[in-house]
Amino acid sequence: MDDFDFSSIWVKYGLKETPFSTAPLRLFGTLPIEKVFADREDDLKVLGKRINSANSTRSIIVGEPGVGKTSFGNYLRWLLCIKKKTDKKYITPPIEIKLQNDWNAKQFLRSTLAAIYNGSKIFDWDEKGIKIKAMAELKSLLKASKQKSGGGNIQVLGSGGGVSYGESLSLPQDIAIEVLEDLFLKIFRELREQNLSLILQYNNIENMDAESLSNLLKSVRDFIQIDGLHTLFSGSAESISAFEIHPQVRSVFSDPIVLEPLSAEQVISVLEKRCEALKVTDGNYIRPFKNESVIFLHKMLNGNIRFIFKLLDDVTTRMQSAAPCKITVEDIQYYGSQKSKEYVANLTPNEKKVLFALFDKGELSLTELSDETKIAQSNLSTNEIKSLKAKGYVATYKNPSNRRFTMVKLSQSTRLIVSFVPKELK
């Protein structure tokens, strides 16, 4: 039997784990957010001052995929709620709330209340003197459950109050919305009596089409304006249109914070900070990358930090027999071309046409895609698009401006791979 080596590759670099993790920075994690978050000072000042200047705010954080929206919101919450540099007192749950595509006002309140309860246990609000009587009422509504779905389920990890590690709790689906509304108002009334404000972060607003999201925000408009609540809604730039559909929604939200991609130099700075934070205690480490490799990827991938890190991690893992080594541009190009060849080998000629057209032109309507590929629109829908969606290569959605039109775009992972397809295969 082969003698496999299952030891971590990163030990060879003097690191505890990969510095190329694509997961968002959390309030608490292996990568300490206060040490590895970089730049964004102007945007942080704008949003921080906005929150400090009012009893209730509603902010939108948008940007391209991989730009670091979740990490940005988490770092702001760390500054205001954990570091506590301000005179005001802010509290927050540890995890963001992820919007689901089928949410209505009731499901919004269920998940928000579940997140608040989760935060109260993990951060031991009782022990810190934050006494909220309505929490007992909320706890009585929660039921131990093994459910994994969204819409009000929470995982309480290592918390007190008789809740075991990893126990899944949920608010029953059949609970009346009036009960949820009453409980929500009670909690915030008690928070304000203690001069406390709560910051909640809602992610993945692009999971909902613009009209559905706008209708949801309109239905919860009164709740997100309550004194003592500051909400951060983050998602793709296309989601901004949802805040313009109903004047009642647009009027309660501040101008969006638009995050631009970090520069290549800033990405290098982020990686240096990560390596420093992950080095073995009191030890030295070997940088697993060259600056020119990061600069090359930054230009090629339009600054998408998630893609940059993923490629660096994949190439380093593939070259573990040579570790410790610094990934070069040549290493990246070789790995990318080999991966892309494997990727397109099983595609039909028409499927290739679709992928390359989307890569060159960006997202297209079915009509535009038909014109670009010279494939009949009826065939596109029933053959190529159906097949590529099943493989996870493309995604479709209704055009927010005109829902009669179906738009098609590459998945993020596909765009990454297609970037390396040699010209002779296109």
Characterization of the model:
- This protein is of the alpha/beta class.
- It has 17 helices and 12 strands.
- It has helices at residues 33-36, 41-52, 69-83, 105-122, 134-141, 177-193, 210-219, 221-224, 247-250, 264-278, 291-300, 305-318, 329-345, 349-361, 366-373, 377-390, 412-418, and strands spanning 57-62, 89-91, 97-98, 143-144, 153-156, 167-170, 196-203, 229-235, 257-258, 364-365, 394-398, 406-410.
- The strands form 3 sheets. Strands 1, 2, 3, 7, 8 and 9 form a 6-stranded parallel β-sheet that branches. It has a 3-stranded antiparallel β-sheet with strand order 4-6-5, with helices on one face.
- Helix 5 (134-141) runs antiparallel to helix 6 (177-193), helix 10 packs across helix 11 (291-300) and helix 12 packs across helix 13.
- The longest helix has 18 residues, at 105-122.
- Mean pLDDT is 84; it is low at 144-168.
List keywords for this structure.
globular, alpha/beta, 12 strands, 426 residues, single chain
Range of helix content: 40-55%
What is the H-and-E element order? HHEHEEHHEEEHEHHEHEHHHHHEHHEEH
- Strand percentage lies at 5-15%
- Overall mean pLDDT stands at 84
List how many beta strands DSSP finds: 12
Summarize the biggest pleated sheet: 6 strands, parallel
- Structural class comes to alpha/beta
Terminal CA distance reads 42 Å
Shape: globular
Question: In angstroms, what is the radius of gyration?
Answer: 24 Å
Number of helices: 17
Low-confidence regions: 144-168
Please outline the helices and strands.
Blueprint (H helix, E strand, L loop, with lengths): L32 H4 L4 H12 L4 E6 L6 H15 L5 E3 L5 E2 L6 H18 L11 H8 L1 E2 L8 E4 L10 E4 L6 H17 L2 E8 L6 H10 L1 H4 L4 E7 L11 H4 L6 E2 L5 H15 L12 H10 L4 H14 L10 H17 L3 H13 L2 E2 H8 L3 H14 L3 E5 L7 E5 L1 H7 L8
Parallel strand pairs: 1-8, 1-9, 2-7, 3-7, 7-8
Antiparallel strand pairs: 4-6, 5-6, 10-12, 11-12
Helix pairs in contact: 4-6, 5-6, 10-11, 12-13
